[in-house]
Amino acid sequence: MAKWKKVTIALSVGIMMLALAGCSGAKQETTTKPADKKIVLGFSQIGAESEWRTANTESIKASAQAAGIELKFSDAQQKQENQIKAIRSFIQQKVDVIAFSPVVETGWDAVLQEAKAAKIPVILTDRSIKMSSGNAEDYYVTFMGSDFVEEGRRAGKWLVDFMKKDNEAVNIVELQGTVGSAPAIDRKAGFEEILKQHANYKVIKSQTGDFTRAKGKEVMESFLKSAKADGQKIDVLYAHNDDMAIGAIQAIEEAGLKPGKDIIIVSIDGVKGAFEAMIAGKLNATIECSPLLGDQLMTATKDLVAGKTLDKRIVTKEGVFPAEVASKELPNRKY
Amino acid sequence: MIEMKDGHFYGVTIDILNRAAPLMLLAIGMTLVIATKGIDISVGSMIAISGAVVASLIGGKLEYVDGVKTLITLVPMPVAIITALLVTTLLGMWNGLLISKVGIQPIVATLILLVAGRGIAQLITQGQIITVYYKPFQFIGTGYILGLPFSLFVVGLVFGITFYAVRKTALGMFIESIGINAVASRFAGIKVSKYIFSVYAFSGLCAGLAGLIICSNVSSADGNNAGLFIELDAILAVSLGGNSLDGGRFSLVGSLIGALVIQSITTTIYALGVPPEITLVVKSIVVIIICLLQSAKFRKIVFSKWAQKRGIPSEKNAAKL
């Protein structure tokens, strides 16, 4: 037995050494740069949390290929530590540009300082960051993506225009995104900004649905029941993304109410599922938040490598889609 | 709090029962695993796999041909369901094999699947959320029989069979004896590795069923988020039910109550309107209080002093006398 153990250990050590040797060989190849070397972009994606995120990933992958940029793609599965790990490995691999979509706003100080020390430019996509000390803007070259506060405002404006109620009380329930994430904070802030000008609109309940269908449904179920117990009527549902709204729609139907009629629903993102729900008359409006920023990202990467300076803020093009235009718009949707 | 609506019961209590169903299923499987002094932390990933398999087999394509909805199903629903359950049972067997035959520690062996499982689920779904438009499938997670959620009947059936197997046959005794002392049990003639193998396979089956319910409830499979961290809730449910993680004596009913307690806390937090920033803190405080109340030592320290003040002799003093 003991003898066999030694043999297996020796064998496995041998295999590992071979594997490691193989790795270092490969590494050398990449460090000796050919004359017309490809631009390397390291991108750390949050994870596949929704159809929106998937479209975002696909757009970036497709654009990278079209632009001839080598993309090192890493999926963080919604965990900050995975993203930090990915960014560190990008720094080690000496990529030309690092881009990432931060899963939460804070906690990036150390890793971005490392990137800065390594003189690798960092692009933020669709979510912004905050630093515990110092100016966050010193640590990234540009923030590319949607303006979440504006999306919140658009949702608020659409609602006020749609309801056309100036004096009657309008009770709103809100499904927030992941606690601490930029879209959740900003979409809440933008929406509230508009509601402030209309005292009769009131958010009576607000809870996180983690941007997922399952949680959105579970929280909505509970909203419906507790509102009933308190003798309140829910007039409007405002969801920070379409997937939570889709989950909530199921909860509303199970409660015997008609989503889109008994409860007016407005959500953000504009995924295909939302358009299908609008065609079925179950969702009233979706505020677009376009994930298709791949082309813009690749242009920015090329500009950076060419030594151009970029604007600190690049905003993606977006619109508002009420239910009336849903069936016309659906075939055009890419996500 | 309960009323009738559309021919079924409707209310917070029903919500808690329906929502707790997947957790109760996991807790049943987990109780047996823990009773053998093991642990299975891969159940969350198996839920994701089960959902992914069933959703991708039934087929998520809804196509508009000239404005008419046409649904494409790949295989009949029963086949899809059986395949999903078979897959998770096989994965459970894999866990069992690693633990009982290869001799890897349970937490390490199941950790492999915890990490790899989400990857497998994402491979199956290709990283997307798959929506199931096939109506009959939604019955598992949202349907009602005799006014009660269908998922509860699934729990009831699994519980009934398990309870019968462990309490009316010698199986329960064997499992307990393995948990207390596996070596002694082997010498006593119990086929230890066979039973250990079986409890992990069973836990996989339970996770598969839970995955079907979760997937069907929202009619979609989400490889990334379905059943995320639920393994921790399942372990918590088992321990809240008064079962020791050291194995040995176990109570299935206790675990079910533990699962219901956890879901009640969650639902109550939503209903009370606790700000989302602090819901997890509130949840953990409640759990700490429950655990403290369950600890015999803690009860002795706190309540014996209080009893002394009132002149009631505590157990310790009574022993001295």
TrEMBL record, chain A:
Its main location: other. It comes from Pelosinus propionicus DSM 13327. InterPro entries: Peripla_BP_I, SBP_2_dom. The keyword Protein biosynthesis does not apply. Keywords: Signal. GO terms for cellular component: cell envelope. It is found in: Cell envelope. It holds the Pfam family Peripla_BP_4. Residues 1-21 form the signal peptide. Coiled coil: none annotated. Residues 42-308 form the Periplasmic binding protein domain. Belongs to the bacterial solute-binding protein 2 family. GO terms for molecular function: carbohydrate binding. This is Monosaccharide ABC transporter substrate-binding protein, CUT2 family.
TrEMBL record, chain B:
Keywords: Cell membrane, Membrane, Transmembrane, Transmembrane helix. InterPro entries: ABC_transp_permease (IPR001851). The chain crosses the membrane at residues 16-34, 41-59, 71-94, 106-124, 144-166, 195-214, 226-245, 252-272, 278-296. It is a multi-pass membrane protein. It is found in: Cell membrane. GO terms for cellular component: plasma membrane. It comes from the Bacteria. It comes from Pelosinus propionicus DSM 13327. GO terms for molecular function: transmembrane transporter activity. This is Monosaccharide ABC transporter membrane protein, CUT2 family.
